[in-house]
Design a protein that fits this description.
single chain; mainly alpha; 70% helix; 0% strand
Length: 210
């Protein structure tokens, strides 16, 4: 594959990933900006807090699709697996740091899962299963996310070793984005499902989104 086509694919992937499903859905339904209330994170869980289940489902679907589509497109044009995997990474990066929304994005769980679906769906099913199990037992979204992506590289290493390094990078970035949540978990202060959204304004908009 010619290098300029690979660059076009990577730029397309980043720009697609930068489309924030949560912000657009909240604007469409007239809900508060998810970056300014609840957990201050533009993701499906916070849309559930500030909106409703239908809006959260649309947000989740959009975030997953952002990870899936770039990998699918890359494969359709005959890109090597390494190029396709990097397309997924660019979409994930766009979700974390969206150019359209002042680089204040989400934490990337749904988009990372979307990338993994097309890279190796059996590993993805295991990661989703872990997420659902932890979420059901703790009712804490961040606990489920942190646990499932701590284990994701190990799962991929066992089932699809050649994808270990790409998934490791995704997981490390995702855990970095959850660093505030990890601190809250250690303090026992992390929000559970069903916790009412707090309208408190952001003091530091960039840090609070993590």
């Amino acid at each position: 594959m010619e290098s300029h086509l690979a660059i076009v694919l990577w730029v397309f992937s980043y720009l697609l990933g930068s489309v924030s499903s949560a912000i657009l859905v909240c604007r469409l339904f007239g809900f508060p900006d998810p970056r300014s209330t609840g957990s201050h994170n533009p993701g499906a869980t916070n849309v559930l807090r500030v909106g409703n289940k239908f809006a959260a489902a649309i947000t989740l679907s959009g975030d997953v699709a952002k990870g899936m589509v770039p990998v699918w497109v890359a494969r359709q044009v005959g890109a090597p697996e390494s190029i396709a995997a990097f397309c997924g990474f660019c979409a994930f990066l766009g979700h974390l740091y969206p150019v359209y929304f002042d680089f204040r994005g989400g934490k990337g769980v749904a988009t990372a899962l979307g990338v993994m679906v097309f890279l190796h769906w059996p590993s993805t099913l295991v990661v989703i299963g872990i997420w659902l199990l932890v979420a059901a037992s703790t009712r804490i979204s961040s606990m489920a996310s942190v646990t499932s992506f701590l284990l994701a590289p190990i799962i991929v290493l066992l089932l699809k070793p050649e994808l270990f390094h790409p998934v490791l990078v995704l997981s490390l970035m995702l855990l970095f984005r959850h660093r505030h949540n990890i601190m809250q978990l250690f303090k026992g202060q992390e929000q559970r499902f069903g916790t009412p959204a707090s309208p408190a304004p952001l003091q530091n908009p960039i840090d609070k989104t993590h």
